[in-house]
Fold this sequence. Notes:
48% of the residues lie in helices and 16% in strands. By secondary structure, the protein is an alpha+beta fold. The chain folds into two domains: 4-187, Regulatory protein AraC (Jelly Rolls), CATH 2.60.120.280; 190-306, Orthogonal Bundle (Arc Repressor Mutant, subunit A). Strands 1-3-8-5-6 form a five-stranded mixed β-sheet. Strands 2-9-4-7-10 form a five-stranded antiparallel β-sheet. The N and C termini lie far apart (63 Å).
Amino acid sequence: MRKIKKLKTITAFHQTRGLTPPEHPLISIVNYTDIQMQPEYFDCKWTFDFYLIALKKNIGGKVMYGQQSYDFDEGVMFFIAPGQVFGIEQITGTPANKSGWMLLIHPDFLWGTPLAGGIKKYEYFSYAIHEALFVSKKEEDTLMDIISNIEREYHANIDKFSQGIIISQIETLLNYSDRFYNRQFITRKRAGHQMLEQLESLFSAYFGEDIAGKKGLPRVQYFAERLNLSPKYLSSMLKTLTGQTAQQFIHEQLIELAKEKLSVTSLSVGEIAYMLGFEHSQSFNKLFKSKTSFSPLEFRKSFDQQN
């Protein structure tokens, strides 16, 4: 198992990648062609105390995240938040046409601005590397324009307006990335619907033997792991396909199953609650009423009256 190396500063990143020192200790733009890939770069995994946003082509290796790897021979964009662990697996030969850029942002640079907390709303920082963003040439040009704006300000004389201007450009970059991810979910609807079918099958299997009471309530993490997705990516994809987050989807499925049990069995509400994985029937009652406007007993009574 490869050891994990931690870089606390952007200056340290520059040093380990054979780059000249950054002009600002809390933010830097790196031309990927300037990076010198040292052997030790591949011998371990890495974690940073800063954000890294990158668009790369022909990386000359595979990026590893968890148990997954992704070959960056095509132009893709990915986002690494402080504390994420990743690594690079070297492949034979170094591509002559590698290209791209990296934007490094220390959280302290965002301090005192709305983006300090707002950056957490961009869920793709929690996606796995194999859930990278594929951008078209037109989208890539749009992102490059923003990076160029940041770079011009970065190299200009720093004044009282500099941080605000750069922050606004970073936010624009993140918003465009959000839009492009949404486009990716839409254009890959076929794969998304296949995933939805798999998710429904997994949900049915979870309750297949009526032993959910022993398993507890189904969790997003449980389904994400079996679909080989990160929880955030699963939730974002479901939001595009169904208008529901992963948690909302699970709740919806639970309610539909509860309705079935209430209408075609004589099981008590407590027995149904246990069967669905609820520790307390009061929690089941509360969720059911919030979704249907009826208590479980009221729903059963109304169903009986209809029949």
